[in-house]
Amino acid sequence: MLVLVINCGSSSVKYQVRDTEGSIEDTQVIAKGLIENIGTKIPNHTEALEIMAKNLEEPLHGKTIDAIGHRVVQGGDIFTEPVLIDEDVLQKIDDLSPLAPLHNPAHVLGIKAATETYPGVPQVAVFDNAFHSTMPEHVYRYAVPEKFYTDYGVRRYGAHGTSHDYVTGIAAEFLGINRDDFNGIIAHLGNGASITAVQGGKCLDTSMGYTPLAGLVMGTRSGDIDPSVLTALMMRDPELTPAKMDHILNKESGLLAIAGNNDMRAVVEAMESGDERAKLALDMTSYRLAKYIGGYHVAVGGAQALVFTAGIGENSSPFRALVGERLGALGIKLDPELNSVRSDAPQIISTEDSAIPVLVIPTNEEKAIAEATVEVVNS
Ligand code: AMP
C-alpha cells in the first residue's frame, strides 16, 4: 500500500510517501519533501498540494496513492486514536482549533486540499495527543476553578504523542519486555521537547500541558514558569499584551533567551569554548530534565528504562552526558564510550551496573503515522 503522510502547517507542508508492501513493520520511503511559503509565494494549501502531487509523479512511476495519513496536533479529549476522516471528523478537528490555534486550522486546510487533489482516497487523522489520552484525571487536571475545565477545556493534553508511543513500543521490544508490562521514561528532545512517564505501556503523565509550552526548557520555549510572572509583568507594562507575552514565551525564550542560540549544537560548542551563558543554559536545561526524570521514576513506580529520542536526544551525546551526571541518586550511570556512538538503530548507552538501562532510540513519526493509517484503512 502506498501511504502519503502529510504534516500540514499554516505556511508549510511536509510530506512523505511510504510503501507498506509486505510487512507493515517495514515501510520504505519512496519520496519526501517540504513545501514552504504558503500564503506568500504559494497562494494556498490546495496549490501547495498540487505542487506536491507534481513532485511525486516521477518517484511514483505511475503508481497511485492508496491512503493518506495526516498528523493532527490537537484531538482534544474527543479523539483517543487514529480515525478515518469524514465530514463530521473534519468539523470536530476544526472545532478544536481554540486549543491549537496555530495548527488545527492548517490541518483542516490540508485535509480539504488533499480531498481535492486525491478525490476518493481514504484519509486518516493521527492525533499528536492521542497517546496521552490514558492520563488519569488527577494527572491531567489543573488545580483551578472547575469551570475552566468544563467551559474551556483547560487541562493537560500533551504533545509528541505519536513519537512517545512509537518509541515506547520499540523500547519494550528491544528490552524483551511485553509492552503491557513496560514502565519507562521517554525523553523526546527536539526543538520542542517533552518527557513522558509510561506505565504498563501507556502514558501516565507528560510534561507538555494545555499547550506545548509547558515542561522542559526548549529551543525557544520557556517550559514551566510561575504563572504570576506573566500576570505581574503584564500588569506592570501595558505593552506586554497577551499576544506579545505568548510570542516571548514560545519564540524568544528557552536556550535562545539564556544562551543566545536555540540550536543545541551551537550551545554545546559555545560552552566548550568557555561561554558562561551557554553553560548556564545547559545547566538549566539538564537540571530541569533530570528533575522530571526523578519525578517520573517515582510516578511510574520504578522505570525499567530511560529513553532519549528526537534531534537532541538522538544526536547530542554531550547533552545526554550532562543529564546523566545528575542521575546518580537513581543509580543511573552512562557509559562515556557507548554514549559517544552515533547509531540509526536502538542502542544502550548505560554501564552494565547502571540501575536501569538508558537507551537511545531514533524516533520516526512518519513511519508511525503510515502504520496507523494502514491499520485504520484495513479495518
Ligand atoms: P527535531 O525537532 O527533533 O528535529 O530536533 C531539532 C534539534 O535537534 C535542533 O534544533 C538541534 O538543536 C538538535 N540537533 C540536531 N542534530 C544535532 C547534533 N548533531 N548535535 C546536537 N544537537 C542536534
UniProtKB/TrEMBL annotation:
The keyword Nucleotide-binding applies. GO terms for molecular function: acetate kinase activity; ATP binding; magnesium ion binding. Pathway: Metabolic intermediate biosynthesis; acetyl-CoA biosynthesis; acetyl-CoA from acetate: step 1/2. The lineage of its organism: Bacteria, Bacillati, Actinomycetota, Actinomycetes, Micrococcales. Catalyzes the formation of acetyl phosphate from acetate and ATP. Can also catalyze the reverse reaction. The keyword Amino-acid biosynthesis does not apply. The gene is ackA. One of its GO terms (biological process) is acetate metabolic process. Belongs to the acetokinase family. Substrate binds at residue 71. ATP binds at residues 14, 188-192, 263-265, 311-315. Mg(2+). Can also accept Mn(2+). Its EC number is 2.7.2.1. PANTHER family: ACETATE KINASE, ACETATE KINASE-RELATED. This is Acetate kinase. Mg(2+) binds at residues 7, 365. The active site is at residue 128. Pfam families: Acetate_kinase (PF00871). Homodimer. GO terms for cellular component: cytoplasm. Its cofactor is Mg(2+); Mn(2+). Keywords: ATP-binding, Cytoplasm, Kinase, Magnesium, Metal-binding, Nucleotide-binding, Transferase. It comes from Rothia terrae. InterPro entries: Ac/propionate_kinase (IPR004372), Aliphatic_acid_kin_short-chain (IPR000890), Aliphatic_acid_kinase_CS (IPR023865), ATPase_NBD (IPR043129).
